[in-house]
Write a structure and sequence with these properties.
This protein is mostly helical. It folds into two domains: 40 residues; 53 residues. 51% of the residues lie in helices and 10% in strands. A three-stranded antiparallel sheet has the order 1-3-2. α2 packs across α3. It is rod-shaped.
């Protein structure tokens, strides 16, 4: 047990008593924190997103593994169908699949 000298205006404090007090406080803190975790309501499972019918031009390019510039060329030439919704341009997933089917069927046999 360690004690500090009693200076004028200061109390004698036992290091062992401080450690015991600190351990008690930490134990109470742990108990309060564990009770808070248990009282939180469980989060509902996220609902699955429906399969998207329309993709952004960037998403369509990613699906085909090509760049943005090339897909815009394919759209402007009419090789890939796209639609406008207000100011937005969207590519139907069916148009991407059809374009890929055409590429496969037009490819020369090796």
């Amino acid at each position: 047990m360690t004690t500090h000298t009693n200076y004028p205006g200061r109390c004698t404090v036992s290091t062992d008593a401080r450690a015991a007090e600190l351990a008690t406080l930490l134990g109470r803190l742990l108990e309060v924190m564990s009770n808070c975790r248990q009282s939180e309501p469980p989060k509902p499972a996220p609902r699955p997103l429906p399969e998207r019918l329309l993709l952004t031009v960037e998403e369509a390019a990613e699906q085909l593994g090509i760049g943005r510039t090339l897909i815009y060329k394919l759209i402007s030439s009419g090789e890939i169908e796209s639609i406008r919704i207000g100011r937005l341009r969207r590519v139907p997933t069916a148009a991407i699949q059809e374009y890929a089917r055409r590429l496969v069927s037009d490819a020369p046999a090796a």
